[in-house]
Fold:
Amino acid sequence: MNKINEDFLAQGTWSGKIYSNGWIDAAGGTDKVTAPADNAHLADVGRATDKDLKKAAAAARSAQPAWEATPGSERAAILNRAADILRQNADKLVPWIVRESGSTAPKAAAEIELSVAIMRAAAAAALENHNTTLKSVDGRNAHEELIRVAHGVVGVISAFNFPLFLSIRAIAAALATGNAVVHKPDPRTPISGGIIIARAFEEAGLPDGLLHIVSGGADVGAAMCEDRNIAMVSFTGSPKVGAKVAEACGRNLKKVQLELGGKNAIIVLDDADMDIAASNCAWGAWLHQGQVCIAAGLILAPVSHAEKLAEILSNKARHLPVGDPATEQCALGPLIVEAECKRIEAIIEDAVQKGAKLHAGGKAKGTMFPATVLSGVKPGMRAFDEEIFGPVAVIAAFDDDDHAVALANMTDFGLAGSVIGADVERARAVGNQLRVGHLHINDQPIITSPLAPFGGRGQSGNGGRISGPAIWEEFTQYMWVTTKAAATPYPF
Structure:
């Protein structure tokens, strides 16, 4: 086991730098990293440009063939060492994630554990053999097989809300299957989503050239989609930006894997225990200030129970403290930027103007947004139609099971869905009608597993998945190989 490195995140190593064959100066100079809670200056990181991206992609392509030829056991060993390093340094990493992303400490600790688990799963996948033998059907007396080969260089673009986990799940999958990686973390969370990962793999002994962390703006992401040395892009973020990524990758005939947003419904059936259902709804709607792609964006309750559910949730909301998790005991931290608060307030105001009832919350102070409850929400209101990505429990009433399914499916998203009810067979029958990538019966939707393929349909993604068996499906491709004992002549 590796010893805890007291200097693991010492800023003298990486301050003002990007990671590309070591820590180097970036062509774009430096960016300041600030805390969303109070705008305090946390650190400086290198600001990459398209020139940095081009150099990194070329270096990654040069290093990748030797990595793909490396036995899976050696790739797995490095992934496991990097996972060990993250876990052993967790006490140092939690404060960075808390300050930089506005996470509470328990959420930050859980994110580290999720990241460790995803790296362990990727390490195990590196040991798998996905080659298969085919039956020869043309009488050519050849041995035929299908083998899985790496794409080459995978570009990764990740989001700010779970910056470590959302970055490492694609990076680990790509490395496990023999690819090199060029990664652009969200510029608001470049330490949690980039620096930490670079340091872990650096300490774990990953060979030079296989991982490049190029923090920067949209120009870097655009260059990633255009660069001929990058064969695939894995993107996590909004549908709007995801569509641009898909368009650019399509124009350049690149493989693209998208994990986008969600308007995830919890259907509470009339036989559910309302207190337990409310607990699930509260966790699903307000965890990490609702800044989760699989958050409960729509709570569907029977007409006869909707007001009771709203009352229970409102009482919970009023007792959840909001503050700076770095200095206060709180359940909710800040949103990532104040502009997000203004956007969410506008969504709430639209709903109220159109007849919805605001029970609790609804107004921010700076980046602090309290747990909020809206009831009487209907289609045509922004709160019903849009992904809010904030701490708002949106309650809409339904008449019967068919109506609940229709409301839940009245969206272009298709990421996750939940059904809560005492009759499990009935709940499953309702859930099976939802057009989603993840279905949870008697649970809320913020659930993930390193062994389960993650992704959605429609505006939630392009049908691609990540994690579990999807590692080999997404990050490699088939090669058909035929072998004859000796060459034989043809008629020509």
About this structure: The longest helix spans residues 105-126. The chain is about 40% helix and 20% strand. The CA atoms of residues 256 and 418 lie 28 Å apart.
